Amino acid sequence: MEDTQRYNNVSIALHWIIVVLVFTNFAMGWYMSPLPExxxxxFFFSTHKSIGITVFLILLFRIYWRLTHPxxxxxxxMPAWQRHLANSVQFMLYVLLVLQPLTGYLSSSFSGYxxxxxxxxxxxxxxxAPALNQLFTDLHSxxxxxxxxxxxxxxxxxxxxxxxxxxxxxPRMLPARRGQG
Length: 181
Hints:
single chain; about 180 residues; mainly alpha; Fumarate Reductase Cytochrome B subunit; two-stranded antiparallel sheet; about 5% strand
């Protein structure tokens, strides 16, 4: 695959940093929700919120970077419907990755609990309102399920090309090996 078909190193680094943080937050979210009230649950919720805000900030930079450094075109050997599906899934991933921390922050703002970003208090956008807290918690949960499903579709698409051998798109987003641009 030509170097021109690869994403640039900044895009690759941002992608994999977000991947690690998002999967960390998925695991943490599933683990912490059923915990009983107490110090451990508070620790996980606080860390989960900080990671979510970190993802949001990195994602804003990633969107800026993407707008100023367009992605390489998908291989011409891919059928048009697959290119359209890949682009649509990628766009929806961006949308959901923006919505996820926003719904989480709004849920927290209406929970009556403060939100800290790695120990630094942040302003609440709301007040203690159980109904609004539940609405944004539900939206956060639904968004997480849809986001997880799209991530699986995204991974499946890349792996399907690897397995079938038709077009290998995976190296476009993998870090370059030594001596390889």
